[in-house]
Amino acid sequence: MNSCDLYSDSEYKYEVTGTSGDYSVTFQNSDDNTQQYSSVSDGWTYTWRQNGTRWLYLSAQNNNSTGNVTVKIYRDGSVLESNTSYGGYTIATVSGEY
């Protein structure tokens, strides 16, 4: 069984959470293009479906002088990768072939 069969029609999700409440995000979208938002709030998500695996990327910067930011990639409800960055204006990033 190859990865295309194993992960056919899976639901993927990016998520940004933290304590600052204001984040800038950059991510690889469902069309395989880079997309950016300069201000999203705590709990921001982006969800899509895909067959097989490909390169995924999510980065979020804390836009405030205090707090933390956590980024996660999910597949079918399970966390594939998670990263947290602590402090003002810090950046958390997750990426990989998923």
What's the pLDDT, averaged over the residues? Answer: 94
How much of the sequence is in beta strands? over 45%
The low-confidence runs, each spanning 5 or more residues with pLDDT under 50, are none
Radius of gyration: 14 Å
Distinct helical segment count: 1
Descriptive terms for the model:
98 residues; four-stranded antiparallel sheet; 1 helix
Mind sketching the topology for me?
Blueprint: H1 3-6, E1 10-18, E2 23-28, E3 34-40, E4 44-50, E5 55-62, E6 68-75, E7 78-86, E8 91-97
Antiparallel strand pairs: 1-4, 1-6, 2-3, 2-5, 5-8, 6-7
Short description:
With 98 residues, the chain is mainly β.
Structure, described:
The mean pLDDT is 94. This protein starts with a helix and ends with a strand. The chain is mainly beta and 98 residues long. The protein is built from 1 helix and 8 strands. The chain is elongated, with a radius of gyration of 14 Å. The strands form 2 sheets. It has a 4-stranded antiparallel β-sheet, with no helix packed on it. It has a 4-stranded antiparallel β-sheet with strand order 3-2-5-8, with no helix packed on it.
